[in-house]
Specification:
The chain has 560 residues and is α+β, with helices and mostly antiparallel strands. The protein contains 12 helices and 19 strands. The strands form 4 sheets. Strands 8-7-6-11-10-9 form a 6-stranded antiparallel beta sheet, sandwiched between helices. The chain has a 5-stranded antiparallel beta sheet with strand order 2-1-5-4-3. Strands 13-15-16-18-17 form a 5-stranded mixed beta sheet, covered by helices on one side. Helix 1 packs antiparallel against helix 2 and helix 5 runs antiparallel to helix 6. The relative contact order is 0.05.
Length: 560
């Protein structure tokens, strides 16, 4: 009977402890609840819970209940004999602190994992029944610890992911390095729930960190300089050498602040491979609370996102600078080429007009060839300059009112000098609307038609090229039809790309680099229109550009 009663009492005690601990939502709450419940049911003088620290491989006092100030000390928890016995799964008797006190330490294990120890001390003798009850409580606590830690891990994962997602969304949309640094300085203290922050960019050329921003510095604290040399500041030297997060949990004057004492701080290197972007440092004003695992995970993730964003911003800035230099070079070279080409073309015209006497048939043929090649090269230079202006955003649309007749004359002039094979006829078909008024950019529309007609002449050796102007409601449409070689269906989607040609081989028969149709597409789009093409290989092609809203109703007043 007595054995059954003891077993019933043991089961009741374990159930009561389980009921109390099952409501715990954190490790701290769980271990303190376990201590309180165990002390109440065991009626001992002192209950301690030691938790295993896998990073430092030692036991740490985590919670305690005692009649007096009898909690287990750090030194007692470090006892190697105690630790060896517990890790072997043994219940370890404890020697008396005072003549009347005895104790026992029971390992808390679950699934082969060592979680810590449950330690009890009392004035009475430690009986087998008491040890059995403590061992049951230790097993329950180990199970509860695994459950709570799993829950805490999920909550931490959710919080870390939420914070890093917010940081990622903010920095990934920013490509300006200066703005990005300002954003990072503000974001790091908010993401880590800290009071102040500093951002410093690393200048590889001079080997110094340059302060780019600060936020919420503690009262009385300031930066010693805008330029910080690593050899003068240990934390910067450590970051450059190890490229790992440096955290200080104890309050002291940080190496980057003067004139004030601050709490714990964390320094985050921003680097990718061998490239160092800089450093973010954030901290508390006074509190000396160590940084938790969640905060370190956020710091690691922030470092990755920030480093990637800074590297992308630097690459974009380098590309923009290279593009600017390229544009300047192309513009300069093109202008330098255009002047002598115009001189050459002028001289060929003088030769044809007999400025140095009459030309023989062979001489005239030679001059004509020279003039044709010169104009082709001049067209290439002009197209290069035009593309350069388009890419730089310097070629703005200047729409203005213009009569249909005036527009037709401008289009005729723009195509007049184009080289045309002798066996190709050239025709215009115009609408019967002499009083129609349009609103468009005459120069750009003329260049569109010139490029389309020039393209048609280039790929038509015999037959005809026809330009048709059509008015339908408020839509102006221009069609250029030729009877040339046509375009294969698989090439139609790419003919408006830069440097694309139907025949891109080195043995192609037609000159050009593939800029004309690219310019057409760009200008038509900027004029609010669309361009379409229909083609049959061996029969010819028809290009159609349409501009909704370009036709102004006759008699309507047109604003300049």
């Amino acid at each position: 009977m007595r054995k059954a009663a003891r077993e019933a009492e043991r089961v009741k005690a374990l159930l009561d402890v389980s009921q109390h601990t099952s409501a715990a939502r954190s490790v701290d709450e769980l271990v303190q609840t376990t201590c309180d419940s165990a002390a109440a049911f065991l009626r001992v003088r002192c209950v301690d819970i030691l938790l295993w620290d896998p990073d430092e491989e030692r036991l740490r006092p985590a919670a305690s209940w005692s009649v007096g100030n009898e909690a287990m000390t750090e030194d007692e928890a470090r006892d190697e004999t105690l630790l060896d016995g517990l890790r072997d799964g043994a219940t370890v008797p404890l020697g008396p602190r005072e003549a009347s006190q005895r104790g026992v330490a029971v390992p808390m294990t679950y699934g082969g994992w060592f979680e810590g120890a449950l330690v009890v001390r009392g004035d009475d003798e430690i009986t087998g029944d008491l040890v059995e009850l403590v061992e049951g409580m230790a097993r329950q606590t180990a199970v509860a610890l695994m459950s709570v830690r799993t829950m805490e891990q999920r909550q931490e994962d959710a919080e870390v992911n939420r914070t890093l997602l917010g940081v990622s969304e903010a920095v990934s949309s920013c490509v300006d390095e200066e703005v990005l640094w300002s954003l990072l300085v503000r974001s790091v203290s908010r993401a880590l729930d800290l009071d102040w922050s500093i951002g410093a960019r690393f200048d590889e050329a001079h080997g110094v960190f340059r302060v780019v921003g600060t936020k919420g510095l503690p009262e009385g604290a300031s930066m010693p300089s805008d330029e910080l040399r690593a050899e003068d500041y240990p934390v910067l030297a450590d970051l450059l050498a190890r490229r790992q997060i440096v955290a200080a949990g104890e309050p002291h004057v940080t190496p980057l602040l003067v004139g004030g004492t601050v709490g714990s701080w964390i320094a985050i290197p921003l680097c990718r491979g061998s490239w160092m972007a800089g450093v973010l440092i954030a901290g508390r004003e006074q509190d000396r609370v160590p940084f938790g695992r969640g905060q370190r995970r956020i710091a690691d993730g922030l470092a990755q996102h920030a480093s990637t964003a800074l590297q992308n911003a630097r690459l974009i800035a380098d590309l923009e600078n290279a593009d600017r230099l390229k544009s300047e070079f192309v513009s300069t070279v093109s202008h330098e080429l255009r002047t002598p080409l115009n001189v050459i073309i002028g001289y060929t015209e003088m030769l044809r007009e007999g400025a140095v006497g009459d030309l023989s048939g062979d001489q005239r043929d030679l001059v004509d060839r020279l003039d044709t090649r010169g104009r082709e090269l001049l067209d290439l230079v002009e197209a290069t300059l035009q593309v350069n202006r388009i890419e730089a955003g310097r070629d703005q649309v200047n729409a203005a009112p213009i009569g249909l007749g005036e527009l037709v004359r401008a289009l005729d002039i723009s195509t007049a000098g184009l080289p045309r094979p002798p066996a190709v006829s050239f025709e215009w078909r115009l609408p019967e609307a002499p009083g129609a008024m349009l609103r468009t950019d005459r120069a750009k529309l003329a260049l569109v038609v010139r490029n389309l007609v020039g393209n048609a002449f280039k790929f038509t050796s015999a037959g005809k090229v026809e330009v048709r102007l059509l008015l339908a409601g408020d839509v102006l449409a221009i069609e250029v039809e030729d009877s040339g070689i046509g375009i294969p269906a698989d090439q139609l989607p790419i003919i408006f790309d830069m440097f694309r040609q139907v025949d891109g081989s080195e043995t192609r028969k037609h000159n050009g680099v593939g800029l004309g149709l690219y310019i057409v597409k760009q200008f038509v789009t900027r004029l609010g229109g669309r361009v379409e093409v229909a083609s049959t290989p061996g029969k010819g092609s028809t290009f159609r550009v349409a501009f909704p809203g370009a036709v102004v109703t006759a008699g309507e007043r047109v604003a300049a």
